[in-house]
Amino acid sequence: MKPSLLCSLVLSVSFSTIVFADGPADNMADKVRPVPPPGIEISARDRAELEAGVQTLGRDLEALQTELKDKPDLLNLVPDARIFHNAVRYALQYGEFYKTNQIEIARKFLAQGTERAAQLRAGTSPWTTATGLVARGYVSRIDGSVQPYGLVVPNSYNVNSPHSFRLDAWFHGRGETLSELDFINGRQQSPGQFTPDNTFVLHLYGRYCNANKFAGEIDLFEALENVQAHYPIDENRLVVRGFSMGGAACWQFAAHYAGLWAAAAPGAGFSETADFLKVFQNETVQPTWYEQKLWHWYDCTDYALNLFNCPTVAYSGEIDRQKQAADMMARALSEEGIELTHLIGPGTAHQYHPETKKELDRRIDSIAAIGRNPVPGKVRFTTWTLRYNKMLWVTVDALGEHWERARVNAQIADDHRVELDTLNVTALTLEMAPGLCPLDTTRKPTVVIDGQELEGAAVGSDRSWTAHFQKAKGLWRSTSVRGAESGLSKRHGLQGPIDDAFMDSFLMVTPTGTPLNGTVGAWTRSEQTHAIGQWRSQFRGEARVKNDTELTDEDIAAHNLILWGDPQSNALIARIADKLPIRWNAQGVHTREAIYPADRYVPVLIYPNPLNPERYVVLNSGFTFREYDYLNNARQIAKLPDWAIVDLTVPVSSRAPGAIANAGFFDEQWQWRSH
After folding, report:
1. Tens digits of per-residue pLDDT, 132-190?
2. Of 35, 53, 77, 568, which sits 20 to 30 A from 602 (CA to CA)?
3. CA geometry: angle at 147 spanning 629 and 165, to 5°?
4. Burial of 616 (0-12, 13-18, 19+ CB in 10 A)
5. Distance between CA 669 and CA 675 in Å, rounded?
6. Residue 209: pLDDT above 80?
7. Rounded to 5 degrees, what are φ and ψ at 55?
C-alpha cells in the first residue's frame, strides 16, 4: 500500500476494518459525502421477513412494558431486549446494512430480543448474571432513546461476589458504518484490546461517531450509572482508555473529569482542534472570534493542568501521524510543570506495538491497584466553562467570565486550615463526603482564599464537610448557599452555549400558527426537519417532538425546550418573547446594537426558560455543527455561541444555517453583552 493512501485511512475499533476518511476531498464544503454512508440494497424477501420480525418483536416489547409495570426490577431490564429490536429497525428504516452477512445478524438479533423478552416475562434474566461478553442497554434521559453498550464481565464475578470490581471504560475508534447492528454484534464477538484480570470492561457506543462529545459524552455517565446499578463496581478504580477517535475521547474525559478516574490511557487520536486539522487534515482553519473561544470547550490542551489529579499514561506509534495528540498534550503539560508519561511503539504506525502494550498494561494495572484518592491533600483545577466545574473536593459555582481561563489551586495545609488561590472564580464550594474529611471536628476550619482568611462551616461528626464561598467587589465571604448571588446567573448545566441544551433532556416544539412571513416560515420548517434528521444520524436518537398547542406544564418542567418558528407562529415563543434579551416581532429582530428586518433575519439563541429557569429554551437551532464537520471528528465542535442573527438571504450550507450577521455570548447574569 502506498504511504499516501495509508495516511488517508482511519482504523476502526478492532483495527481490522478500514474506512476511507480524512482525505483532501473532505476539505470541500460544497461537495460533502454523507455520514453515515448509504448502505447496500437488500432483497425484497429479506426486507419483508425482517420487517415482519421487527413488528412482531415491537408489539411483544410494548405488551411486556405493560405486563411488568408492577415489577420495576424486571421492567428496568426491558432495554436489554429492546437494543436488538432497535438495531434491526434502524438498519431497515435508514438503509444501514453495510455487509451481506448483516442480514443473518439481524435475524439473530430478532431471536435474541424475543428470547430476552420471554425470559423477562417468565421472571428471569440470565444475561444479568452471565460472565464474558454481554450486550446491554439503558434509556437516555436526553431523548428517551434506548442506547446500547457492551460489557466484558470477568470470570471471577458472580452475584455473591464479596468485593467491588475495577472497571475500564473503552472508547472506540472512528467507524462511519458503526450502526447499532454493527456495534452490538462486535460487542458479542470480541472482548476488545484490553481485558485486565478481575476487571469489568465497559465498551461505549458513544452515540456513534462523534469522539464522545456532547450526547456522546453523556453516554459514558449514563451507561456507567446503569452498570453500577447492576454490578458491584469500585468507584475509586475507574479507568478510561481508548485509541484513535477513542484516544481523543479518552483525552477529553481525562482532562475534563480528572478527579473521577484512577487512571487514563489515551492512545493516538487528537487533543485539540487547530493544529490537528492543519497537520492531519491539511486544512486551513479560519474560525470566527466566537468559534475560537468555543475551542476551549473540547481543546484538551487548555485543561492539561487537570491531569495533576489523574495518573495518565499516553501511547503513540512512533510513525503514527496521530502521535501529534500526545505531543501537543506533552507541550501543554510541560507549561504546567508536569512531564507526560508517553509510551511510544517503535517503528509502529496506527496500532499498538505488542511489547509497548504490555508495558502500558503493567503501568495502568499498578496505578489501578492503588486506586483513586477522593480527598487528596492538593487539588489543581482549571476550566473555561461551568459545564466542567468540579475537581475532587473543589467545585467552581460561578465564573468572572466564561471562555476565559479559571483556576483553583487548593491544599489542606493542616488539620484545621485550607488554602486556595483562584483566578476568574466568583463562587466555589469545598465538599468532602462522610468519613473522608481529614479536618479537625472540634473547631471550624480556617479557609484562606487569595490571601483572605475566612471561617468555614463546621466539620460534621460523620467527618463530612461542605463550605460555600462567594466573591463580590473583590472580597470573599462565607455563605450558607451554593453559587452566585441571588438572581439569574450562569451556573453548571445552565451556562450555554446553544449545544449545551442537547446534553440533557430536550423537547422540540413545532409551531402550528401562521408565520410572520413566508421566508421565515419556510426556513424554520426546513431547519427543524434538518435538526430532527441530523439528531438521528449523528447522535442515534429519536428527538421528542410536540406541537406548541400540546405542550404541558410537565413538559416545561422536565425538558429543555427547542422552540421552532417565530412569535406569531409558535405560542410558546409568543408567551416568552418579552422576557428574552433579544426581542422579535413583525418589525424585526431587536438587539441593543441594531434592528434586523423580520423578512430577512431570524435569531437563534439559548436562554434560561422564563417559565422554568431551571431549564433552557433554544430558538430555532439544533446542535450547531453540520455535514461538513461530520467528516473529521476534530471539527465536531460548537459553531455558534449563546446567540446569533441568521441572514436568510444566504442559502443554508453544509457549514451554516445561512450567513451569520452577528453573534455573541450573554454575560454571567444572562444579560446582553457587546463584544
Report:
1. 999 999 999 999 999 999 999 999 999 988 899 999 999 999 999 999 999 999 999 99
2. 35
3. 110
4. buried
5. 16
6. yes
7. -65, -45
Q: Which helix (H) or strand (E) holds 297?
A: helix 289-298
* Residue 658, C-alpha cell as written in the block: 445561512
Return d(Cα 610, Cα 574) in angstroms, integer: 12
Picking from 225, 224, 214, the residue whose alpha carbon sits closest to that of residue 249 is 214
DSSP 84-139: HHHHHHHHHHTT---STTHHHHHHHHHHHHHHHHHHHHTT--GGGS--EEEEEEEE
pLDDT band at 18 (very low <50, low <70, confident <90, very high): very low
Q: What is the SS3 assignment for 562-597?
A: EECCCCCCCHHHHHHHHHCCCEEECCEEECCCCEEE
**What DSSP element (H or E) covers 298?**
helix 289-298
Record the cell numbers describing residue 592, joined without a space. 441593543
SS3 helix, strand, coil % of the chain, rounded to 5? 35, 25, 40
Q: One-letter amino acid identity for 348?
A: T
β-partners of residue 432 are 465
The predicted-structure confidence for 283-337, as pLDDT tens digits, reads as follows 999 999 999 999 999 999 999 999 999 999 999 999 999 999 999 999 999 999 9
User: Which residues lie below 8 Å from residue 625, measured CB to CB, with a gap of 6+?
Assistant: 635, 636, 637, 638, 639
The DSSP code sequence of 482-510 is SSSSSSS--BTTBS--GGGGGGS-EEEEE
Place of cell 409558535: 570
My answer on whether omega of the bond before 36 falls inside 30° of 0, hence cis, is yes
- Return the bridge partners of 153, or none: 132
**Residue bearing cell 430536550:** 506
- Look up the pTM and report it: 0.96
d(CA 622, CA 541): 13
Region 573-594 average pLDDT? 96
C-alpha distances out from residue 454 to 358, 427, 478, Å: 50, 14, 7
Range 292-311 burial, b when 16+ CB lie within 10 A, else e: ebbbbbbbbbbbbbbbbbbb
Cα 622 to Cα 288, 385, 598: the distances in Å are: 20, 21, 21
Distance CA 382, CA 404 (A): 10
Largest CA distance in the chain: 78
Rounded Cα distance between 375 and 444, Å, is 18
For residue 357, is it left (φ>0), alpha (ψ between -120 and 50) or beta?
Answer: alpha
| Inter-residue contact 1 to 11 (CB < 8 Å) | no
Q: How many angstroms from the chain centroid is the CA of residue 514? A: 36
Architecture in CATH for domain 1-31+129-374: 3-Layer(aba) Sandwich (3.40)
Rounded distance between C-alpha atoms, residue 470 and residue 225, angstroms: 32
Sign of CA dihedral 273, 491, 309, 199: negative
3-class SS letters over 164-211: CEEEEEEECCCCCCCCHHHHHHHHHHCCCCCCCCCEEEEEECCCCCCC
**Which ranges constitute the DSSP H helices of 416-506?**
none
Q: Around Cβ 341, how many Cβ atoms within 10 Å?
A: 15
Q: Where in the chain is the domain with CATH 3.40.50.1820?
A: 1-31+129-374
CA dist 47 → 80, 103, 184 (Å): 24, 9, 20
Amino acid at 279: V
Measured in degrees and rounded to the nearest 5, phi and psi for residue 153 equal: -95, 125
**Phi (first) and psi of residue 122, to 5 degrees:** -85, 0
Instruction: List the grid coordinates of 495.
Output: 451556562
In angstroms, the CA 280 to CA 271 distance is 12
